[in-house]
Amino acid sequence: MATSLIEDTWAGDDVSVAEIERELARLRDATSSDDSQPNLRTSVMTHVAWVPPDWLHMAESTLLGMAERHPSRTIILVPRPEESDGLDAQLSVRCFPIGDRAVCGEVIELVLRGRRVEAPASIVLPLLISDLPVFCRWRGQPPFGAVELEQLVDVVDRLIVDSTEWESLPDAYAPLAELFDRTAVSDIAWARTERWRSLLASLWPGIKEVRSIRVRGTRAQGYLLEGWLRSRLGHDVSLEVDENERLEGIDVDGKPAPFPPGDPPNPSDVLSAELDRFTRDRVYEAAVRAAAIHA
């Protein structure tokens, strides 16, 4: 991974969106005028991340690990509804060396205080790069039906969640499914089952008669794998989950399935792969709808 170089930064409290735009333009101009190394501002998307304070450190580490692969304008929204109304900002231009040049992206970290939490679209829309896709990574369980989620769903081209981070399972899959016709949805918990799904599919035709699975992994992975099998096979499949932080094994009708080849990807690799997807995943959507039946 390339080392991140922060070329210039700016921070302000109780700022306006116009002030953020002005300071962002100044940072870009300052970076471009640096003759020590030719810098290219190459954004392929706008990446929005809704990050409650408890998730901030983990989110920043993940974003740092993938920034050179997806140079973008990253807008990190940190909600603090318990504080007095206001908007605080920290801006930076981060450059990554590629040969004798550096590719630069912008990071806009915004703390939404008080009622500003309820109007993220009015803040995000002026900061989007026109004609580029917009992705939103939502850390933790989304507040389904809340105005902040509703606004961002209508702004973004893809919503990226990780249902492993959710407490209300499988109940939360039902309101998630209601979003599928409004925006494309990715689930990192689902992405982390890909090697195992490929393995189970390779057991065809024997797998078509499966009646039960025992998953040693997260609850989310268990529900999604069971939902996937039930939606593909057209019959009920009972589920037992031996909770684990990562997916370490699956028993099919009481017999251990072979271990799939390869190593599980790191968080940056998983998120990077989801940012390369531009269409709906109908197989995932069917698995979620089947998992929601348990709710």
Summarize the topology:
Elements: E1 5-12, H1 17-32, E2 39-41, E3 46-50, H2 56-64, E4 73-80, E5 86-98, E6 101-113, H3 120-124, E7 134-138, H4 147-153, E8 158-161, H5 173-177, E9 184-187, H6 188-191, H7 194-201, E10 212-217, H8 219-233, E11 238-243, E12 249-252, E13 255-256, H9 267-274, H10 282-292
Parallel strand pairs: 2-6, 3-4, 3-7, 4-6, 7-8, 8-9, 10-11
Antiparallel strand pairs: 1-5, 5-6, 10-12, 12-13
Structure characterization notes:
This protein folds into two domains: 5-156, no CATH class; 191-292, no CATH class. It is 30% helix and 27% strand. It has helices spanning 17-32, 56-64, 120-124, 147-153, 173-177, 188-191, 194-201, 219-233, 267-274, 282-292, and strands spanning 5-12, 39-41, 46-50, 73-80, 86-98, 101-113, 134-138, 158-161, 184-187, 212-217, 238-243, 249-252, 255-256. Strand 10, helix 8 and strand 11 (238-243) form a beta-alpha-beta unit. The longest helix has 16 residues, at 17-32. It is elongated. The model has no long low-confidence stretch (mean pLDDT 89).
Search tags:
alpha/beta; 2 domains; 4-stranded mixed beta sheet; 10 helices; elongated
Mean pLDDT: 89
Structural domain count: 2
The portion of residues assigned to helices is 25-40%
Tell me the total number of β-strands: 13
Short description:
With 295 residues, this protein is α/β, with parallel strands linked by helices. The protein is 30% helix and 27% strand. The two termini are 42 Å apart.
